[in-house]
Amino acid sequence: MIRVNENYAKLQSSYLFSEISKRVQAYQSANPDKRMIRLGIGDVTEPLPPACIEALHKAVDDMAARSSFRGYGPEQGYDFLRSAIALNDYKARGAEIDADEIFVSDGSKCDTANIQELFADKLTIAIPDPVYPVYVDTNVMAGRAGRHVQGRYKGLVYLDSTEANGFVPDLPESPVDLIYLCFPNNPTGATATRAQLAAWVAYAKANRALILFDAAYEAFIRDPALPRSIYEIEGARDVAIEFRSFSKTAGFTGTRCAFTVVPKSLMAWNKKGEAVPLHPMWNRRHTTKFNGVSYPVQRAAEAVYSAAGKQQVKALSDFYLGNAALIRTTLADLGYSMTGGENSPYIWVNVSKDSWVFFDRLLKLAQVVTTPGAGFGRCGRGFIRISAFNSRENVEEAMLRLRKTMRA
Ligand code: MLT
């Protein structure tokens, strides 16, 4: 008899962004004349940088000629892209990461979900609250969490991120094995200093724990004192895996390209207490289950690191940060307190009310879509997340609508 994975039954309703999209569609069908402005899911709106488009076109031409045609590429990614990443994202910032420690993929969502295949079934997992829901849901699917009770799964160690700790969670009180961190943070937009990351690295070392560090939003960091990679912290390459993406950096949400760094010095332990390197394990997983990102897309990603590409990509994130500044000013004028939006495209607003109720109110009164904080965890219940990913015109219009409907 074929049996189902009963862990799926523990999951809460639908995936957060599917639930939001369902509510928005229902409202839109009932009110076809209303124009919605979407500041919910962090999906980019601006076209790809010209350097990427040019590289894409050229790569398509390569595919049209026998002499330059490419079939299956290396599952880990082409050397031209892995080397450009190692040089520009890591070595240029003093982080010793080699090209062959980088695995190119089609997204950080998949990578952060898939990486847990490398670890034992029974682990103590520390997850910040609020958090990108993929980290929690995929561990539930894998059977590493118990029942959902009062907004939390039994068996997970939740790390509260609140106004009191500046949305950077404190170290766990009891030992954990696997730690999820994301900075600049989704959803709160908070950033972590070098000292804060160094404390996590020291904790992981002392407890033989592993950090999964999601740096998908590093391109939005403007404060030069903030680390962009966990590998800027000494010793991190022995305790951390880092996830990066071209989605928000270069507008690749629809184009799909990301990468994961698994340093060769990174170990986990088997039941005999022997150290096992994770790099060959991830290489095995990646080569068995993934056939690589398409050649034209990898060429487009490589162009992000050209002189023109660097400038255009910076202009892109500057543009969204300009939107974020507009959102911040409007909310401050309306009397709300918030975090994020300065080194991050997300603004986390304290609405001091049930976040789904507030979400529905904004949808109905202003036709502005946000993301209810409760969807990211119990600590998000009194917050909404506003995304800066949209056109300037739409953000300006959305802010006008908020000014009319959202006085605190
Ligand atoms: C978000 O809105 O949190 C992100 O766009 C979701 C994602 O990157 O998968």
Structure characteristics:
408 residues, alpha/beta, Aspartate Aminotransferase, domain 1, Aspartate Aminotransferase, domain 2, 2 domains, seven-stranded mixed β-sheet, four-stranded antiparallel β-sheet, 17 strands, globular
Number of H/I helices: 12
Major sheet: 7 strands, mixed
| Strands in their spatial order, largest beta sheet | 2-10-9-8-7-3-6
State the CATH superfamily name of the largest domain.
Type I PLP-dependent aspartate aminotransferase-like (Major domain)
**What is the overall pLDDT average?**
96
Low-pLDDT segments, ≥5 res: none
Structural class of the helices, strands and pairings?
Answer: alpha/beta
What is the highest CATH level, the class of the largest domain?
Alpha Beta
| Helix and strand sequence | HEHHEHEHEEEEHEEHEEEHHHEEHEEEH
Q: Supply the number of structural domains.
A: 2
Terminal CA distance reads 57 Å
Shape: globular
Helix content: 25-40%
CATH T-level topology of the largest domain = Aspartate Aminotransferase, domain 2
